[in-house]
């Protein structure tokens, strides 16, 4: 495979060839998130609340894998752009070793903290019990997540987007099929309830990893993984963590935000915790496809930056910004037109549906402008500039939204929390443009 196509092919066809497989797989992934929650909601509203409370820790596990994967992706793409194949092999091999270590640590820690974590947000023993039953099984597959995401980013770094599309879609489709079978007990399978949802998720994640391994050993790619490149080397580990830690924090910040907002909303009613949980499931249908374009952009921007093609870097950024904006505009229209029907997918409680309708209409006011933050943060990660990317995410998920939500909740109640979302997106968009331009101006 020739990797120099990343700086030779016209920018728009190149971006589409890299991004569309990711957009498609992200759409299936977001469909899985919604279907999974749909079936869990059929167990009981307590089960859906438990899933909402477990989500931040579950998201942190995914964030740790994806964040480190982004660090590996950026290092591989950059070194391929500078024609340093040996360093690209080091990035892949040492990144995989670190993923194993992270998987072991996260499995033990997340299972250990789960009960006290749940008790911070609810006193309902039924919700805590359901959350524990789900999380212990789900977290047992942490190693599969870390390794699967590492291979995903390695394949993406060399332009093998169709492989990652097939792997991700296979895992998601397996989840979608197994969810009702294992939750409700179809055919020879016993009814496992919320444990069945967790097991279906883990089997899907394992299937994705198996596909990556099969393709890696059956078909050569420009990057190799081997013991001779696996011994940790200071500069490479620093480079991987230099992007990987900020990228992990970028993706983990939503988990922290949800936990903090749950704390604010719990003072009013657990109905609002459920509404927030449903919103975060629904918004994946927008942000995951937009992230598909970002994933297609990252290796292209990294490669072209390493090759000194700064004009192509700017073209890629603008194209992804436009495409993300179009996706967000579509999401805004949908949330304004049918918010009640969307909430009705997860609950039949009229009070919850009414609260959710208002929340979706208000929050959606910030969707379009959020494309600026999403694109800028992803582009900076692709350029290997993890800290500026983290600055954007800190504004979006912590520094601005939490104090605004806290103050507005005191004045307007739960409605104030929903308004904090669009206010934050507006301010963060302005910050994002400034941070991106300043970081790119400092070439190198």
One letter per element, helices H and strands E, the order comes to: HHHHHHHHHHHHHHHHHH
How large, in whole angstroms, is the Cα Rg?
Answer: 21 Å
Total number of beta strands: 0
What's the story with the biggest beta sheet? none
- The secondary structure category is mainly alpha
Helix count from the secondary structure assignment: 18
- How much of the sequence is in beta strands? under 5%
Mean pLDDT: 89
Q: Alpha-carbon distance between the termini? A: 28 Å
Share of helix, binned: over 70%
Low-confidence stretches: none
Anisotropy-based shape? globular
**Oligomerization state of this entry?**
single chain
Provide a short characterization of the protein structure:
This protein is mainly alpha-helical.
How would you describe this protein?
This protein is mostly helical. The protein has 18 helices and no strands. Helix 3 packs parallel to helix 5 (125-139) and helix 9 runs parallel beside helix 17 (401-412). The protein is globular, with a radius of gyration of 21 Å.
